[in-house]
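Just scan this pair:

***
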Amino acid sequence: MPDVLEPQGLVVVGASAGGVEALQRLVAGLPADLPAPVLVVLHVPSTSASALPAILDRAGPLPVRHARDGDVLEAGQVLVAPPDHHLVVQDGVVVLTRGPRENGHRPAVDVLFRTAARSWAQDCLAIVLSGALDDGAAGAVTVTQRGGICLVQDPDEALYDSMPRQAAAAVGLDAGVPVAEMPARIVEWLGERHPQPRTGPSSQLSQEAAMAALDPDAMHDDDRPGTPAGYGCPDCAGSLWRIDDGPLRRFRCRVGHAWSSASLVARQSVAVESALWMALRSLEEKAALNTELAAQAKAHDRPHAAARFTDSAQDALEAAELVRRLVAETGDAIDEAPPA
């Protein structure tokens, strides 16, 4: 049995829309003797099967598979977060949890980055690839605050440039890196590593990482990170707390659902549209019922009742037209909004 290589560092990678192609190119360029494990989160629907490990395993020399709860981190392996599970780093092992979603995702890039930074500090390198909105930016900030480094895909080559652009802005990077150049940058960084004591994480970082792992003490703690924001959580309707991380403002609720500003706005827009569709359906049903009742009253020679039901149906139809226009205008506003 070959000797297990002691990792010289930890590489964590996050991607979303358009990320499969970038991940294939990244893995294809990594050497077979890479002295670090690579952990990958790709945002995927919770109910779908993921073929990503098989795709990446064929792309390059490193073995790739889904992470299993309790896997020991070993150099020269690529572990992919399975659907509907956060990939949490706890020192030298990974833990799979069904903790609260972040930005509506499980697995979430920020959970991986944050927990990797907590345990590995300056020995962590985070990579943000193609994706929409700003997932990964908060985690990248945590990595750099703990002494690690962050690389982002060149936005001009990313299929969806928002995630790398937002992460670069959050950590103060002037430019992104083409994916083809990233393997060499990783190897160079690993070659420069010198063992140093890792500083302990802040209490807030420890608490947020514990919440992702569904730690009961963190869930029951009345001392929440941040300050009350006055907004409700889109996932559970609980109160949100505002957390400022350098240039980033994000939000977390009592049970741990977390949101970036851009993701919260996007989810609120979806909630508004959903509420408008419910209102439109209710008004259409009200109009249809009143029309039916008017016909019934007319058939029973009740003209006053028939007139009342007819007027009510007309009022409902006019209100429905107003809501219908609001639905269209809300959709147009969302489509035309600039990236957060």
Notes: Confidence is low (pLDDT under 50) at residues 334-340. Residues 9 and 325 are 55 Å apart (CA to CA). The longest strand covers residues 239-245. Residues 222-340 form one domain.
